[in-house]
Amino acid sequence: MSTDPSTSHDYEVAVVGGGPAGLTSALYTTRLGHETAVFDRGGGRAAMMQETHNVIGVPESVSGNEFLQTAVEQIESYGADYRTEFVTEIDRRDDGAFELETGDETVTAEAVVLATGFSDGRPEPPLPRTGRGLHYCLHCDAYMFVDEPVYVMGHDDSAAIVAMIMLNYTDDVDILLRGDEPTWSEERATQLEGHPIDIVEAEIAGIQNGDDGWLEAIEFEDGSVREYKGGFAMYGSEYHNELATSLGAELNDDGTVAVDDHGRTSIDGLYAVGDLTPGHNQVPVAMGQGAQAGIAIHMSLREFPKSIAELEAEGAVEPQDVPGIAPELRQQANEHSSAEGD
């Protein structure tokens, strides 16, 4: 569907964030018959992926941008709007609907899905190239470092834990403090002493890359040079929870949005999925959360079946009242089915 930003739009579902979680929510709500728009400002962790790992049916040669572009084409083929716009504010009206400000217009929706994710804390340069020696997802990328020299950059408990975890894949693991003092606990320090991990205190002075752009070695200010295939930066996460906070949604201590198993927040009609919520930050997990939320939204918005109370108040459903799908999506579904049959 094309979008004219000079006009106002009403949707049943508005998804804020165009990563795997948000796009999957939109896929489900659109296919289940609800007028849906995705608002995506671009970027995000999935877009940074050089290769796609751990997603059954998707070749690893597919980049994050290619993966997301295919998903956008899919939701548009079913009738969803994909809008490259930044939602600056969301308000709740007295009638329960949400108003989303995009800078160009005010959009209304009956349900909102927040899929705004988080940003990894990024250390100061000099650094290896992201995806070519600098990585943030242990569960995605540990496999590529089997029997390879690896660093973990950081100084807190999470850095210490990840370094010890990497010993499951290689016998050559260093922690790079980069001139910082360790902030891990005494218990963690005792653990580290019992594991064959080198702790490098000196700051990084330079990076050596191969012809293919992959990291080969790191130079330190004390004059030493250490070879690495790559490693992980552990400097925390910044959750993009501003919209959830403005609506009064409950947050967890770490800044994630509190949700139930179907992505429902503490605010009726407001859902959160993907990296903005607790759990493993993985594409398949995010997609599963998006699917759960999409189905939950459908069950809350669908026209039929009418309850006994509704039938008693409104009378029986007449043949002209069905189907309950929006006319534009009904037409799109017929065109989609015809195209598949060609």
Automatic annotation (TrEMBL):
Keywords in alphabetical order: Flavoprotein, Oxidoreductase
Region (Disordered): 315-342
InterPro entries with a match to the protein in the record: FAD/NAD-bd_sf (IPR036188), FAD/NAD-binding_dom (IPR023753), Ferredoxin-NADP_redctase_2 (IPR050097)
SUPFAM superfamilies: FAD/NAD(P)-binding domain (SSF51905)
Gene Ontology MF terms in the entry: oxidoreductase activity
Domain named FAD/NAD(P)-binding: residues: 11-290
Protein name as it appears in the record: Thioredoxin reductase
